[in-house]
Write the structure tokens for this entry.
Amino acid sequence: MAALAIVGGGLVGASLALALQRGAKERGWTIELIEPFEPGHDYQPSYDARSTALSYGTRLIYQRLGVWDQIAERAEPITDIHVSDRGRAGVTRLDAASQQVPALGYVVENAWIGHCLWQALDDDVVTRRCPAEVERMRAVPGGYRLTLTDGQTLDCDLAVLADGGRSGLREHLGIEVKQSPYGQTALIANVTPGAPHGGRAFERFTDEGPMALLPLPDNRCALVWTRPERDAARLAAAPEAEFLEELQQAFGYRLGGFQQVGARHLYPLVLIEAQEQVRSGLVVLGNAAHSLHPIAGQGYNLSLRDTEALAVALLRSSAPLGDLSVLQGYHLQQRSDQRLTVGFSDQLTQLFGESGRLSVAGRNLGLLGLDLLPPAKAWFARQAMGMGVRER
């Protein structure tokens, strides 16, 4: 009986288990999902819950996996995206109606997505080892041997490393990463605006760094505010009234006066790309494979497209589980999507992080051009919706 071990049961790992479980049952494969922190059986809403922007393309994937209807119960649709450069004329607007989709994307709390995914797993196929953690892993004939922190060992034909951007196992396996620091820190928090957000998302570029406000249920907004490291630390420690006043100055009054801010978290921003994503019997997936700047909202959506492509490649193949040629074929198929998405996110970040006069003039002309040229706007919208490479 072939065995697959998924190291990391977060959103990417759980999505892969869900995508594989029906075909795995037919083939007699076993799936081990190894995760240190089990999602709660009873979902509890929280003002401070972290959230993820799901593209329209991600909605289609979750529809195919049969979990979208449940996820949608607490998903806030993005009906419009307003992109602007503070204090300058460059503005462009995207709306769902002109793209002929019900929403450009959706913002959902991570805990709710995880809850929905774990509830959909079939216990007859997926063994959940939780709480559990892999201490080390090594290649053995026919696959990998995983040693858990409690001393247990697990042999598998295919190991999928989905344990996040700071994966210690990736380093342990000698997989090199390319790191490109942005010299910025993202401040993440939920805020309450004074006016209804109406499903609008905002991308706002300032001389100090870009910011995004994404609509959440209960008229909250998820804030991603990129600042220089010291400035971000100062804002994280500032009294609430002082923080809201500075946020108001940077964002403006398109959503009225900000009323409340929740817990603030800081994340140094680095573009991380694993230089190997497949070996015989091994796949590196999710943030362990590529971690992107959050301002463009592309990271998780790219990871989910990788996840679906991997599941399709494995289930379509008659080769043994973990066969290198199958895994290389998967990676080759996804390489163009990864390059385009990483490039789109990185170039957008670099472009709007520049404060020189020529850069400012160029990006404002670009924003105005997007607003005036329907084909250019349609291309930009397709990137934002996660549909720039593959038609689904």
User: Anything to note?
Assistant: The mean pLDDT is 87. The chain has one domain: 3-40+48-178+270-384. The two ends are 33 Å apart (CA to CA). The chain is about 35% helix and 30% strand.
